[in-house]
Amino acid sequence: MEILGLHHIAIICSNYDTSKQFYTEILGFKIEQEIYRSERDSYKLDLSLNGNYLIELFSFPNPPTRPSRPESTGLRHIAFAVANIQESVDYLSSKNIICEDIRIDETTGKRFTFFNDPDDLPIEIYEA
Predict the structure, then answer these.
(1) Locate the VOC domain: which residues (predicted)?
(2) How far is CA 4 from CA 11, 26, 128, in A?
(3) CATH superfamily membership of 76-128
(4) Which of 22, 68, 66 is nearest to 47 (CA)?
(5) Would you put residue 31 in left (φ > 0), alpha (ψ -120 to 50) or beta?
(6) Which end of the chain is more exposed for a tag (fewer CB within 10 A), N or C?
(7) 3-state secondary structure at position 90
(8) Strand, helix or coil at 57?
(9) CATH number assigned to the domain with residue range 1-62, chosen from the 4 options 2.60.40.10, 3.20.20.100, 3.10.180.10, 1.20.1250.20
(10) What is the model's pTM?
(11) pLDDT tens for residues 102-123?
């Protein structure tokens, strides 16, 4: 098997309109396709960033919550590269999104921090 790259990240949200607004209006993802699947009472929103298809955002009626703290088995977080960590933190703060303190990766010397999406999914931004 030859893996060519990451195809997409699937996220199930508890409030479709809130998460759609967060990922498009705050994080800047572009809507490629939005489908309502009546048999599932579910939306599927395909999102891209810089022309790359990255996220499938799903809504389902009454999805169970998934623990992310304390650290639990499974997907830990998603991470996005940014050009300037401080500018990114300042932007998120202007949108009332709380970021953790900026830290330094001991291996690379790069700066990074975390914040949460509307469902408390941890998102990392990492200075490229």
Answers:
(1) 5-128
(2) 21, 29, 21
(3) 2,3-Dihydroxybiphenyl 1,2-Dioxygenase, domain 1 (3.10.180.10)
(4) 22
(5) beta
(6) N
(7) helix
(8) strand
(9) 3.10.180.10
(10) 0.90
(11) 999 999 999 999 999 999 999 9
Mark residue 19 as left, alpha or beta (left: phi above 0; alpha: psi -120 to 50; beta: remaining): alpha
**C-beta separation of 92 from 80 below 8 A:** no
The CATH 3.10.180.10 portion of the chain extends over 1-62, 76-128
Q: Which two tokens stand for residue 26?
A: 């705050």
Please report where in the chains the tokens 């955002």 appear, as a residue. 57
Which residue(s) pair with 12 in the sheet? 58
Q: Is the pLDDT of residue 34 over 90?
A: yes
